[in-house]
Request: fold
Amino acid sequence: MTQQRKAEDQWMPPRVYKTKVAYVFQPKSGGKIRLCGLDVAKSLVWMLYEKECAALDNFNSVASLFEKFFLSASFIDKAPRTQKDYLGYKKDLLIAFGKMDINKVEPKHVRMFMDKKAVKSGISQANRHKSALQAIFSWAYERGKIKVNPCVGVRKFTEKARDRYVTDVEYQALLDHACPVIYAAAEISYLCMARRGDVERLRKEQLIADGIYIKQGKTGKKQIKEWSPRLKKAISHANKVNPSISSMYVIHQFNGSGYGTNGFRDRWVSTMERARKSTGYLMDFTFHDLKAKGISDFEGSLEEKRNAAGHTTTKQTADYDRKTHIVPTVKSRN
Reply:
């Protein structure tokens, strides 16, 4: 912790700080551990701190395993988006399993965690936390650190595949009410079949003669999205955003920095609200649905769609292909 302590807090253990109601320990491995309330003796705070340190220093603890995994080449080699997701899952996983011996975690413990997480955050988050935990235990199993992977055999929740298709009318309503930031981001995402994160991180150096160079943050797939008049128009809209500000990003804020999740989401919500009030449409789709619309509207076979989208398998592409196809009826072509 780099923040200078107040004089009255100098007695506190390293990496321990006060909230309004408790003393909290923030270990180097991540996460936060509540030690006790504020109405206790200083000696008790130190005792609880040392107890937590001992648990973290336990070579066989899950917390110790996590610390080793997140410093490993296996984690570093993962795509940036996957790394970010794993770090996000880390907090809740450490709260649930951090103090446990790695060889005493059983499938029933994983199941209990998933059930509680599903109630709190939804089945999708429960499944993703389980996948991350299983990957970490697999890493440990392959290196002889554990005898069995306790996640194996624990079934995920069944998730209903999203099938929301954004109609042309809805998409036009979005563009008609969008600020230059959302207009440019939406068009780039739709035309390039790109994820929001890849659009937000898009740099001007990626605009090359043949098109837009994109290395997908989630898969690492490298592609050049070919220029079209409409795609060039989207970039021109992006250039209208704070044109006097020098920035490395195609879509940037007033200070030249790129957009983070919160700032972009606020603009998206405002745009959707304007479109909803003006048109009366529900406008209940997400930004990620625009990638699905792009894949659905792309003319070509499923394999051609897969190649354009940069997917590994056609099954992934099929999940994004949401457009309802017109099929002939009996004798309709006679």
